[in-house]
Design brief:
Length: 208
């Protein structure tokens, strides 16, 4: 069977560079390793399937420590830094988008968005903060001899419950992606159709 490269539509416009897609894929891989290994460590039904628990622990720890590195490496990309600026900037249209989401108003005219909508901005900020908290608490749990037992107990509590929350949020993120094939194509190939961009992100200053 001959595999053919996906051909973008005639009206395709660039959305993400190769560096940005690399950051997303690498981060997703490391996050996936953390989630899968955590499930084998904490869910009894999954834990019974693992014969080498120590190996799973090591993979979990290494993946967690490496998790911030793709983003740090991505800072070398001007396009990635520009998108971080878009994600960190909240305007009146974003507040309007959130109000519409809370009212379950699905009209596109009620949910104006630039390159990223308000939901994507909130998710990006939350997952970035959660990752840093997980890294900090994980290090406290890893280097047990460096901290008092009260710190380790508190870190374990926060780490475990935040991990559960991250799992739920990631499931929602994946579900949203599965419901928007064009958005997935943008992250996979770097381009989206102009029609989709005008419909879903009307305030985005798109390249000509």
């Amino acid at each position: 069977m001959i595999l053919r490269a996906e051909v973008p539509p005639a009206t395709a416009i660039p959305r993400f560079t190769r560096a940005e897609r690399w950051v997303h894929r690498t981060t997703a891989l490391l996050m996936g390793l953390c989630v899968v290994t955590a499930s084998f460590l904490y869910v009894p039904e999954f834990a019974q399937l693992v014969g080498r628990r120590e190996l799973v622990v090591r993979v979990h720890e290494i993946a967690g420590v490496l998790l911030p590195l793709p983003v740090l490496a991505g800072l070398a990309s001007r396009a990635f830094r520009a998108d971080l600026g878009h994600l960190n900037r909240f305007g009146p249209h974003d507040r309007r988008w959130l109000r519409a989401a809370l009212r379950r108003d699905k009209r596109r005219s009620s949910r104006p968005a630039a390159k990223f909508n308000a939901g994507q901005k909130v998710y990006a900020a939350w997952i970035a903060g959660a990752t840093l908290v997980m890294l900090g608490t994980g290090l406290l749990m890893w280097f047990t001899h460096l901290t008092p037992i009260m710190w380790r107990t508190s870190a374990t509590f926060v780490h475990d419950w935040l991990a559960l929350t991250i799992g739920v949020v990631l499931a929602g993120h994946i579900g949203m992606a599965l419901g928007d094939p064009e958005a997935r194509r943008g992250m996979r190939t770097g381009t989206v159709s102009r029609e989709w961009a005008e419909r879903e992100h009307p305030l985005w200053r798109r390249p000509d």
